[in-house]
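Hi support team,

I'm filing this because I wasn't sure whether my run with adenosine monophosphate finished correctly. The job status page said complete, but I'd like someone to confirm that the output block is well-formed before I use it downstream. Pasting the exact inputs I used:
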Amino acid sequence: MILLFGPTGAGKSMQGQMLAVRMGWKWLSTGEMLRESSDPAVIEVLKSGELVSDELTYEVFDAAIKDARAKKFPQIIVDGFPRTKAQAEWLGDYMEKSGHKIEHVVVLEVPETEIMKRLEKRGRMEDTPETIARRMTIYRQKMYPVLGSFAEDGVKITHLDGTGTAGEVHDRLYTEVVGE
Ligand code: AMP
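And here is everything the job wrote out:
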């Protein structure tokens, strides 16, 4: 399993999907699955930029992993999970129980000014200036510290330059994760 980290607008989804398509891997995004929810309460949380409950996140993650394994995907790229230390601990237990491991964590690094420019163009339902600011704060306060737990556990972590065109970032990611 490969985890993609980075703030909102860093290009995790696009890069995760591009690599997954090229390699025949599964791209798994908790945000994408949650956006498909028909529960108005969930959609409200998404629009606010806050995190949904851990329980719901675990539910969608577990279902997607089971589906990917049933379909025999050789590798899974996870985008947007875990987002908190509690989720990271849960994932650690989950992986241990299922006999799998996190092979690599890739952090897409993009300056905040560049992210703001990108999000203005994207225009998703939750991309208002307030929720973008909120998600940035959550990333810095909750998600970034999760990297510390992975480092303690000896998981390979790579910080990748996420600026430039999608193709340029893809080439860097491919080289880093797959090799030359
Ligand atoms: P993303 O597409 O990864 O930016 O996620 C969009 C939104 O989905 C986030 O702002 C959260 O509201 C929710 N979400 C996605 N992944 C998680 C997670 N691991 N834990 C809690 N909420 C999440």
